[in-house]
Amino acid sequence: MKHPPIKLTIDEAAPGAFVWTLLQTDDGGSPQKVMKAAEDGYDSYEAALAAGTRAMDAELRKSAAAEQRKRALA
User: Is 66 exposed, middle or buried (0-12, 13-18, 19+ CB in 10 A)?
Assistant: First the structure.
């Protein structure tokens, strides 16, 4: 099963406010578009990383479920 290439970034948007962003990338890893981003900042890098990782896992599960439905209908 092939998942879309996704890159998770964590930035400190303002002092003490860390945000995550999920970027869809090309096969070389260059960002192509923003898939999803944090709505609010997190108090620490670790908290933003954990939340971003959960969001990325959800996107991968959603992609896998869509692929399974597609194969079931074929």
Answer: exposed
Q: What pLDDT, on the 0 to 100 scale, is given for residue 66?
A: 84
Local confidence band at 39 (pLDDT 50, 70, 90 cut-offs): very high
Name the more confident of 57 and 68.
57
For the chain, what are the domain ranges? 6-73
Per DSSP, the residues of the chain read -PPPPEEEEEEEEETTEEEEEEEEE-TTS-EEEEEEE-SS-BSSHHHHHHHHHHHHHHHHHHHHHHHHHHHHH-
